[in-house]
Predict the structure.
Amino acid sequence: MPRILTQAHLEQFRNRLCDVAARLYFEMGHSDFNMRDLAARLGVSAMTPYRYFGDKDGILAAVRERATGRFADQLEAALPGGTSAVIQAYLRFAMEEAAYYRLIFDLSQPRAHPATLSLQENRLQAALAAATGARTGHSETEIVGDSLWAALHGAICLVVAGKKSEAELAELAFQLVLALLGIRKHFVVPVLQMSPSPSANSLADSGVLHTASAARIAAE
């Protein structure tokens, strides 16, 4: 007898949908990302993703919001450890969650910002400002923070593009932090993960959803 899908099951399916959408976006880019391929990878009917998010931009906005929130969570958790800990957390997320990092900052996305996405972006910026503000005067905080952010982001993009190695990124981060903040700190740069790891809450990995239940979602 098919199991009745609870709200928890549906939320887990949304999480899995976001994981697969991020992976597809990383591979295809914004222009080639499409709902049919997404549905095929999920093993559901072509119309199922529309029932959860409306359209392609709705799905990508949801993935971007979740990714930005998770990024902000990690930077905020690192704040008690000081500036170096926040920068280390930044590098770790960018390398281990490269698909989500790309989606957060990709310039090809629509510029429309849901309020919930703006809230997560504000958290991210506030964490970075707090990290650099502890090492600079109030009048210098914004320019120093933005300079460090831009330089780190550029270096990370070079690694994603295959132009720099993880070791070279570690050295660049060391030199940037020394030059801008006067901190001598060697950073550990993880190996670039080109595909997002499945969410711990994904239906496919948690086993919460039986095959019969998955078939019900696919048939929606």
Notes: The two ends are 18 Å apart (CA to CA). The chain has a mean pLDDT of 81.
